[in-house]
């Protein structure tokens, strides 16, 4: 799922964020006003909505595939087409002690399913540590405009 998340995130970054944020950044560089950052909020909201919907669609597809595979195996077991003899002997030998293992397996499947829906990235702002004084002075007005935008 991590590969799928990375692909979806790359699509959102290149498809709906990068070009729009570049134009906002150019406008901010020209004006050096906090008002130039206003479109960034709608860009972010649209990107989050796109990312969420694509992840939800992918998770639903994966969950459907898991459910389909489970249904197919269960139906084959009911019809006697699945070789369950070894498992039947093992479960009848273990008796009620196998119930704990069964419960843990179901819990693991539920946790895997829920992890598909709860996996989100956390981002932090850059610190600009290690930049030279000239570059820091160039970034100072932009940083001030960004802080003004975030406080308004």
List keywords for this structure.
152 residues; mainly alpha; 0% strand; elongated
Please provide a brief summary of the model.
The protein is mainly α and 152 residues long.
Give a verbal description of the structure.
It is a single chain. With 152 residues, the protein is mostly helical. The chain has one domain (2-151). Helix content is 80%, strand content 0%. It has helices at residues 2-31, 38-79, 85-94, 98-118, 133-151. Helix 1 (2-31) runs antiparallel to helix 2. The longest helix is centred in the middle third of the chain and has 42 residues, at 38-79. The model has no long low-confidence stretch (mean pLDDT 78).
DSSP strand tally? 0
- SSE run: HHHHH
Main beta sheet strand tally, sense and closure: none
* Total individual domains: 1
The proportion of strand residues reads under 5%
Question: Which percent range fits the helix content?
Answer: over 70%
Count of alpha and pi helical runs:
5
Assembly status: single chain
Low-confidence stretches: none
Query: Structural class of the helix and strand makeup?
Result: mainly alpha
Instruction: Give the mean pLDDT.
Output: 78
Radius of gyration: 26 Å
Which geometry do the CA atoms define? elongated
Ends: how far apart? Answer: 38 Å
């Amino acid at each position: 799922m991590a590969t799928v998340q990375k692909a979806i995130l790359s699509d959102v970054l290149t498809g709906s964020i990068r070009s729009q944020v570049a134009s906002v950044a150019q406008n901010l560089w020209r004006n050096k006003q906090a008002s130039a950052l206003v479109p960034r909020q709608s860009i972010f909201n649209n990107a989050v909505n796109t990312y969420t919907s694509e992840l939800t669609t992918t998770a639903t597809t994966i969950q459907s595939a898991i459910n389909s595979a489970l249904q197919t195996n269960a139906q084959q077991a009911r019809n006697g087409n699945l070789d369950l003899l070894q498992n039947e002997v093992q479960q009848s030998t273990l008796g009620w002690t196998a119930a704990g293992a069964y419960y843990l397996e179901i819990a693991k499947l539920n946790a895997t399913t829920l992890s598909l829906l709860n996996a989100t990235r956390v981002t932090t702002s850059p610190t600009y540590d290690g930049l030279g004084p000239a570059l820091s002075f160039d970034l100072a007005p932009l940083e001030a405009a960004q802080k003004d935008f975030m406080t308004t």
